[in-house]
Amino acid sequence: MSTVAVTAVAFAGLLLPAGPAQAASPLRPAATSAAAPVVTKAAAAKAKATDTLLTGTVMHAGDQLVSKNGKYRMVVQADGNVVVLHGKKALFNTGTFGKGRTNLVLGPKGDLVVRTAKNTVLWRSHTKGKGAYKLVINNAGTLILYKGKGRGVWTSKTPAKPAPKPVDANAFYLPFPKGVSYRINQSPGGSASHSSGNSRYAIDFGMPTGSVVVASKAGTVRDAKWVSGGGGIGVLVDHGSNVCTFYAHLSSYSVSVGQKVKTGQRIALSGATGNATGPHLHFSLVSCSSYGALKVIKTVEMGTSYPQGTMAKSQNG
After folding, report:
1. Measured on CA atoms in the order 72, 76, 81, 87, is the torsion positive or negative?
2. pLDDT digits over 162-212, tens only?
3. CA 292 – CA 290 distance, rounded (Å)
4. 3-state DSSP call for residue 303?
């Protein structure tokens, strides 16, 4: 009884039985297997190319989105930058170059972020909570975050928000929260009550009773009490070298003597206690030991100029 030989043919990475072996005919050469198709890197990349990034998908260095017309690419570069390219021309970038390897991810709350391997955020679209679920690069090379059908919540043409400036630990700031503005009711040397004595370098801000007062600079609370001489309820914060900031005419305070406070930390609420004609905050730089006037306080926002009647907007926080 004769036996039947079985061979195998490689196809697409699988090993499949080819059936009984056929003897070669003496009249023609034996048939040969068809050569496997050669897939180039360019063809493989094209096959994998997509113009869309969905929520939760992470793009790493070397990954890219390609517009449907093939003319534009968004690439996560090895140097940490994310760029949109038209040929070799950059149309948009996140400015995160030189940060080492990064990744790009569209978070579940709709914020597109560039982050380090340790999840430190270097850049973001500021669209958290807006419901974006996909990022698309269109045929004009614009990146668009979509919330729903045709509803974009951000594009790469949206003006970038400036990075917040870090708080300068060595500087003084206005004594109310960041973004809040109050009118300067009386300047240093003002004729109403700042012409002499311990108040000659003070500034009065027209703050309604109950407005939040924050530390102008980090320090230690030296006094929190009723202050004699017309100051009413006051807080004195020590910044070292016998230099203190003084906050007067308060309605209440929320700190205690010896407590360390940070720049921008809430310390009190404004009021009209003591010798005051109306609600306001009296703010000055004084000697910690005597409450004596030192000089006009120099703040990040105003320098040493506090023109009466102008609005002062805080950057404290």
Report:
1. negative
2. 656 778 889 999 999 999 999 999 999 998 888 888 899 999 999 999 999
3. 5
4. strand
Domain with CATH 2.70.70.10 in the chain: 181-313
Q: Which CATH number fits domain 181-313: 2.70.70.10, 3.40.30.10, 3.80.30.20, 3.90.105.10?
A: 2.70.70.10
Sign of the alpha-carbon torsion through 41, 43, 47, 49 = positive
Yes or no: say if 295 and 188 are a contact pair by the CB < 8 Å rule. no
> Tokens 């003319």 correspond to what residue?
71
Q: What is the mean pLDDT of residues 112-126?
A: 92
Contact criterion met (CB below 8 Å) for 58 and 119? no
- Tokens 């320090």, located at residue: 219
Q: Is the pTM of this model over 0.90?
A: no
Residues 6+ apart with CB under 8 A from 96: 80, 81, 82, 102, 114, 122, 123
Q: Domain 44-155 belongs to what topology?
A: Agglutinin, subunit A (2.90.10)
Q: Where are the beta strands (DSSP E) in 58-205?
A: 58-59, 64-66, 73-76, 82-86, 89-93, 102-106, 112-116, 121-124, 134-137, 143-148, 151-155, 181-186, 203-205
The three-class DSSP label of residue 156 is: coil
The DSSP element (H or E) to which 251 belongs, if any, is strand 243-253
The secondary element (H helix, E strand) that includes residue 45 is helix 41-48
Q: Pairing between strand 134-137 and 52-54?
A: antiparallel
Q: Are 301 and 314 in contact (CB under 8 A)?
A: yes
